[in-house]
Design brief:
The structure is a single chain. The chain is of the alpha+beta class. It has a domain of 118 residues: Sandwich (Jelly Rolls). 49% of the residues lie in helices and 23% in strands. The strands form two sheets. It has a four-stranded antiparallel sheet. Strands 2-7-4-5 form a four-stranded antiparallel sheet. The longest helix has 27 residues. The two termini are 31 Å apart. This is Crp/Fnr family transcriptional regulator.
């Protein structure tokens, strides 16, 4: 079985390899953490205290508008980073919730430690910037899908991007993420050849 820190190293090496000296200091800020199903890790009005690295489980970031309508914004699962990133990096209160959908296992690094390392190490600063650029690219792609695609096209795009997601995320959350009524989502599953 691969250790969580080795899984993190594998992802870092794939996306933006760190020199050994930087990896050594970066790897020391991560601590194990686990959470039960449906546990809210970050609440609206709180500052995000941690950057999470997902080892196991599925989570989501979601939002409630002033009419109490819910919007699922993003899912996180292994191997990826999670949390409310704008709150973490800007050190401002969150406008979003971060919740586990299944029992979850993480490594997590405190915002204080992470931000201090970005000040100390140019390589770690560039790693964080690379992660942000990738996240921004994903957000822009998602905005284009939401504005331009039909329900079926959004569903197909989601399955292309994450073919395993139907087995990992409850369908009511996928329907919410796509902005589709749950009944219509069920019809899409039956209609679209997977």
């Amino acid at each position: 079985m691969i250790l969580p820190i080795d899984l993190l190293k594998k992802l870092i090496d794939y996306s933006y390899p760190l020199p050994d000296k930087d990896w050594k200091i970066f790897s020391k800020i991560w601590t194990p953490f686990s959470a039960k199903r449906k546990e809210v890790l970050t609440r609206v009005g709180e500052k995000e205290k941690y950057l999470y690295f997902v080892v196991d489980g599925v989570q989501r970031v979601y939002y409630f508008d002033d009419q109490d309508r819910e919007a699922t914004l993003v899912f996180t699962y292994s191997p990826s980073f999670g949390g409310v990133l704008d709150s973490l990096l800007l050190q401002q209160t969150s406008r979003y919730f971060y919740e586990t959908l299944t029992p979850s296992v993480f490594l997590r690094a405190s915002a204080t430690d992470l931000l201090a390392l970005t000040e100390q190490s140019r390589a770690i600063e560039l790693l964080v910037r690379q992660g942000l650029v990738q996240a921004l690219a994903g957000v822009l792609e998602r905005l284009a899908e939401l504005q331009c695609y039909s329900s079926e096209e959004k569903f197909r795009k989601l399955l292309q991007r994450s073919p395993h997601i139907l087995q990992r995320v409850p369908h009511k959350y996928l329907a919410n993420y796509l902005g589709i009524d749950p009944t219509n989502f069920s019809k899409l599953i039956n209609k679209v050849k997977i």
